[in-house]
Please model this.
Amino acid sequence: MRRALVLLLLATGCPTPPQYREAQPGLSCDRATRVAYRTLQTLGYTITELVPATPGTNGAVAGTKTRRDGTQTTGRVRIECDAAGANLVPIEDSAFPDFEFSRAFGYSFKSLVQQPDVEAPRAEVGLEVLVKALTPHDAVLDLGGPATVGGAVPVQITIRNHTDRAVTIDPKRVDLTNAAGDATAPLGGGALSAALAEGAGGARVRKELLSGRKIPPKTTVAGFLVYPPGTYREAQIGIEDVETGETEGFVAPVE
Model:
């Protein structure tokens, strides 16, 4: 009987005691899911499961992490929420836990929940370019569902023009490079259509594709591009000054 109980606990994980649970009155289901997701990433976990919480329906975020000794551990958090707020319950990956994961999650969550979800501008002068490759889990959170199929990589490009001059952006001049420095252009035409998923995520990317446009002074624009499957490190972007016709090249990390 004892052996059967232990096996059951190992299979299901061990809920953390009440003192380690995160009660967050007033926190919405959506934000609770987002911050739990960011917390596991901050703790070094590779996300393997994401179920957004909704009022009355539990959500979950889980990930795996390799310890220094080479063994792998799983971190999982159940998200309970309703109109009054959210309750986050870490699940320990052991039948006899030391609650190290629960403590680490609690500390990090308390810090991250106080920060805004949207990244503030790094600078208030010049041109600022942000490039974010969306993982499938990012797409579920940010776009409402899968954005692409076949491993194609959806990328969100944000350009903040803090200058007093208008500039233009051409999507054909936004290349991503891999670790070897090989440059890849965004998909277009039939290849792009084939890469977009059915449903809300693909529809959102299709609707908000980054197009060639003028960016007036003190203006921010954002849009999506889609690239072939791969792991990308940097973006090489050419932005043209409308008045002079000169092109300035930017290199930005792919986040």
Remarks:
- The longest helix spans residues 29-42.
